[in-house]
Amino acid sequence: MPWPGRGHINPMMNLCKRLVLRDPNLHVTFVVTEEWLGLIGSDPKPDRIQFATLPNLIPSELGRANDFLGFIDAVHTRLEEPFERLLDRLNSPSPTVIIADTNVLWAVSVGTRRNIPVASLWTTSATILSLFLQSDLLQTHGHFPIEPSGSKEDEIVDYIPGLSPTRLGDLPQISHGFTHQAFNRFKPCFDQLSKAKYLLFPSVYELEPKAIDFFKSKFGFPVYSTGPLIPFDEVNNRSEPDYIKWLELQPKSSVLYISQGSFLSVSEAQMEEIVEGVRESRVRFIWVARGGESKLKEALEGSQGLVVSWCDQLRVLCHESVGGFWTHCGYNSTMEGIYSGKPMLTFPLFWDQSLNAKMIVDEWRIGMRIRSKKNAEVLIKRDEIKGLVKRFMDGESEEGKEMRRRVCDLSEICRRAVAKSGSSHVNIDAFIEDISKIV
Ligand SMILES: O=c1ccn([C@@H]2O[C@H](COP(=O)(O)OP(=O)(O)O[C@H]3O[C@H](CO)[C@@H](O)[C@H](O)[C@H]3O)[C@@H](O)[C@H]2O)c(=O)[nH]1
After folding, report:
1. Domain range for 108
2. Is 8 in the pocket of ligand 1 (CB under 6 A)?
């Protein structure tokens, strides 16, 4: 049971594909709303993964970001009952295990009531989960609540097990505004976690050993890092959409791939600054517009780039003409950037993304930060964007070479993790073995 959002459905589906690939006896029922079935129902998948649907009782995916808090409430209150009815129908045989997104509040209690163990899949970094689970430590140390952009921003949070020392300003602002309200709604899900029977991460152990070790010692049940949960075995797809044809014609490492994810976007005024900054940098680009395609095309007319409404992101990133990735730092995008060996220009918007950006720039040292003002309509101006984009795409500078060398090393680490005997490969097998023992 995934959370009904692209950044959650993708890793859940990739996990399920990996599971059925490793175990020829495993069958998966993948539960989505009817709307989501329309969006992903025709994507290729193994026969042993079958969809089952819940009615469209939550706001549509198309307007999800307009009232995200209402969306969270709807998932938390309206889908439990139809999910139970679905379980009633799936009774011959009934499921051995429920794999549910950690954010699906009611999943653990449904499993407990029915005596079906629940494996909780957390779809972003283990590092941020360690913060969310121990947010009371912020309070103990006078860091909760804090004023946004206040004097404490540069103070270092170095007392949370699992979290490397981090500037307070790089953590999500869970004590204020929209993020605070979202956090309050998700907090009960974190509290439920201790009642699950397994915890799965979409991460690679070698990328976050400290946080994953923390969870292994915290919970009395198995914890597995299984990532990256991205579609790496589908990259060699033979189809040739127009954007791939266009990429074929561009010089090696010359193209900046720009995507702000599948969900939130920036203000119009900010968008205008970004468009002009990128245009004036004269860097080649491929830009995912998500909705405003024709407007963006018009604004960028005459520049050396391509605007698309959607693309096969991992395939684009893995193309040799792409030299860098402008990203909002959603965790799937972060893993895809690393796997493809592309440095990242980070522009986080919400939730876990600022901490992902911090890991990209400061811990893994595979990217540059777009340092933006917080809580302003225009976070960063066009001249700064222009300068930064040029610097970022310069593969000949010492910093550019170093960043690229490091991301190639991490790409290799991810590829090894999913290869035979790699850490994630071994963990997927261990999870299968563990759930096979359930009678
Ligand atoms: O043109 C596009 C654009 C995106 N994608 C895919 O869409 C997914 C986007 O996922 P992600 O990068 O994680 O972004 P969000 O959809 O914004 O993800 C939400 O969920 C993530 C996982 O919990 C969190 O890390 C984010 O903060 C949250 O916004 C990725 O698999 C991309 O490959 C495409 O395939 N084509």
Report:
1. 6-229+419-436
2. yes
